[in-house]
Amino acid sequence: MNKSELVDAVAEEAGLTKADAQRALDATTTSIAKALKSGDTVSLVGFGTFSVKERAARSGRNPATGETIKIKASKSPSFKAGKGFKDAIK
């Protein structure tokens, strides 16, 4: 399912127009991203938790040359599914 198909499904399920469903989906994803950027976690009971994981700096290897390189520390978004969501897809 891509974004436009998700918008169609939300519009049908919630009885919204496609434009309203699009705005709602965009607002949701933007709000989650802003919360994660500010260091918060977003917990949706029954669905899951969005958080930011820190990756430590490490050394790696360039596959083309075999040369050792340093990989910088980084932050990565993470999602952990909740029990209700896991049970819904079994």
UniProtKB/TrEMBL annotation:
GO CC list: cytosol; DnaA-HU complex; HU-DNA complex
Keyword DNA-binding set for record: yes
Gene3D superfamilies the record matches: IHF-like DNA-binding proteins
Pfam families (UniProt xref): Bac_DNA_binding (PF00216)
Biological process terms in GO annotation: chromosome condensation; DNA replication initiation; DNA-templated transcription
Record InterPro entries: Hist_DNA-bd, Histone-like_DNA-bd_CS, IHF-like_DNA-bd_dom_sf
Keyword line: DNA condensation, DNA-binding
GO molecular function, one term: DNA binding
CDD domains: HU
Similarity comment: Belongs to the bacterial histone-like protein family.
UniProt function note: Histone-like DNA-binding protein which is capable of wrapping DNA to stabilize it, and thus to prevent its denaturation under extreme environmental conditions.
Protein's name according to its UniProt entry: HU family DNA-binding protein
